[in-house]
Amino acid sequence: MATAGKKPSMEEQKRIVGEFNQLRQTQRDFAEKTSEMENELQEHRLVISTLKDMEPTRKCFRMVGGVLTERTVGDVLPALRNNETRLVELIKTLEEQMKLKGEELKGFKDKHNIQFQGSASEDSKSKADKEKKPETPKGGVLVAE
Fold first, then answer.
1. Maximum Cα–Cα distance for the chain, whole Å?
2. Which residue has the higher pLDDT, 32 or 138?
3. What's residue 129's pLDDT?
């Protein structure tokens, strides 16, 4: 592992960057899936609001596994409400997982002193401005965005 003051080897840097990018991609995947599920939830809510005032015996159609089926509003509405509840729970779970992955990502970034090209911390900027001396590398890993 990278130690303070010692620059990791090129192979070690590639491994660290690869692991970091994998963590970032996982977090992006959680965000994408959360967004997808939120859109699905909005669609369910729209259909529920449309069907709730209709007679339970009225004929309606529902897509199940790619097959259009004929049902009644009374059959479909409870299933939609159940799906809505499950989607809300799933979204909460995904948001929690995304938050945990973000904390893991931050810990990994801090542990390996990962910095992005073109961005420096405010502390190092202010120190460099005060001292007007070039900074020496501290053995971190530089990641391009």
1. 80
2. 32
3. 53
